[in-house]
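ARCHIVE CARD
Drawer: 12
Card no.: 0347
Subject: one protein chain, sequence and derived structure
Cross-reference: see card 0346
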Amino acid sequence: MATLRLGDMAPDFTAQTTEGPLQFHDWLGDSWGVLFSHPADFTPVCTTELGTVAHYLPEFTKRNTKVIALSIDGLSSHYEWIKDINETQHTTVNFPIIADEDKKIALLYDMLHPNASENFTVRSVFVIGPDKKVKLTLTYPASTGRNFDELLRVIDSLQLTAQYSVATPANWKDGERVVITPAVKDEDIAAKFPKGFERIKPYLRMTPQPNK
């Protein structure tokens, strides 16, 4: 399958996971979702990543976001590895990990990059909206662990900009000023953004975050 692009429908699938079988779209329901792959079980960087996600789960839940991991190892391997993650990362893995031994889902989501590794999935991340469409894709090399603070920041931005006619500037964090999109005319700003705005340039207008 061709690489998934922003706005594409996230492919549905059935899977065996550490929390039982699921149908992906049904499992997502009306939630946002994060699907992320890791190269293999019992690998050091992945151990820290899954432990971090377990620690951060309340933050994802606060954002109405479900997380699910994937590797091409089997369920029995996942269960044994979870013991190590819980022990070494001082947490409890409390989200599903997909067993994708036949690589069906990895191929569906283009998680196998032969020039990087013929045998292991790369560190892919997909953020999926309640409409089941892909909102963000990220791909990391196997050697680089992901920044889940950044992932939460992006979800904050995606959820904010889906609701209001704004965009988030560089290095934006939740609670900071945002950009009014060019589609909003100056004469309409007062009604849409009663907190006021700063007109730096005709195309650059800043306003306090509207939902704070």
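Annotation on reverse: Helices lie at 24-28, 44-62, 75-89, 104-108, 148-163, 186-192. Residues 127 and 151 are 9 Å apart (CA to CA).
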